[in-house]
Design a protein that fits this description.
Radius of gyration: 21 Å
Structural class: alpha/beta
Largest sheet: 5 strands, parallel
Strand content: 15-25%
Order of helices and strands: EEHEHEHEEHEHEEEHEHHHH
Number of strands: 11
Strand order of the largest sheet: 4-7-10-3-11
Distance between the termini: 53 Å
């Protein structure tokens, strides 16, 4: 495990993540995110962009793809309603012989190593947790650990992006944090050709026919403003293929059952 020492206190750091995620289509969104992270000259600082959209539209995938485009290590922190400030920064643990050791979060690890932190579903966190990040999200670019008394500065190459689901807000984001999470980049459902490419990327072993049926299902649902996402489409196609493999039925014949099991009866009218 990597360690670093700051003002005489040793922190154990988290490892970056390697995810099998590929961003397909919507290149303009990728350009917008990379522009937000750009630094024009020595006195400039990067933005802290916010990715907003319905669940399953690819917010985390977009963030990961942009981070890999920068060739930086990527760290992921999954926010929850019980996330505490110490969870975000430094946590004490009991080491060998009963000694106290300090573990830097994925956020601190990204700050120290000049990586990219994806703060997933940030609108699940309380104001107290957001307050601990306020100095990081402005031109101060540091966090303070109450537990260790450390002030931890961010490497110049450190970048952060926050994802937020439109329907998963547990707490209201404080106004002073809103102004620090800019720009806001909205991700909508892909067009039909892009959805087909995403399905092919995730299910390269599937017959083209079943993927076209699933894309048609998704597009009809999008037209009625349903919240079914391409992630749901991948799960529907995958389950239909699995059921077909253990029965004598073709995958197309299993689609209705797959839709019902994944999304419920109310989704069946969108299946042609």
């Amino acid at each position: 495990m990597q360690q670093t020492t700051i003002d005489g206190i040793t922190l154990s750091l988290a490892r970056p993540v390697e995810l099998a995620l590929n961003w397909i289509g919507q290149d303009e969104l990728l350009r917008q995110l990379l522009a937000a992270w750009m630094v024009l000259e020595a006195r400039d600082i990067p933005f802290n962009p916010r990715l907003i959209g319905k669940p399953g539209v690819g917010k985390t995938t977009l963030a990961y793809a942009a981070a890999k485009r920068l060739n930086r290590p990527v760290y992921l922190f999954q926010a929850t309603m019980d996330t505490r400030p110490e969870d975000l920064i430094v946590t004490p643990v009991i080491g060998p012989g009963g000694t106290i050791q300090y573990v830097g979060s994925s956020l601190v690890s990204a700050m120290v190593n000049g990586g990219v932190l994806i703060l997933d579903e940030g609108n699940r966190m309380s104001e107290k947790s957001w307050a601990s990040l306020a100095p990081l999200l402005d031109d101060r670019r540091y966090v303070e650990s109450v537990i260790t008394g450390l002030r931890i500065p961010a490497h110049r190459d450190f970048r952060i992006v926050v994802t937020m689901n439109e329907d998963a807000s547990t707490f209201e984001i404080p106004e002073y944090i809103h102004s620090r999470l800019q720009p806001q980049i909205y991700i909508d459902f892909p067009e039909a050709d892009e959805e087909l490419l995403i399905l092919k990327e995730n299910l390269p072993f599937a017959e083209p026919e079943i993927l076209r049926y699933v894309v048609d299902f998704l597009q009809q649902a999008h037209a009625r403003d349903e919240r079914y996402s391409v992630r749901d489409g991948i799960n529907i196609a995958r389950y239909a293929l699995k059921m077909s493999a253990v029965s004598s039925s073709a995958p197309r014949e299993m689609l209705a059952t797959a839709v019902e099991r994944i999304l419920g009866d109310e989704a069946l009218p969108y299946l042609s």
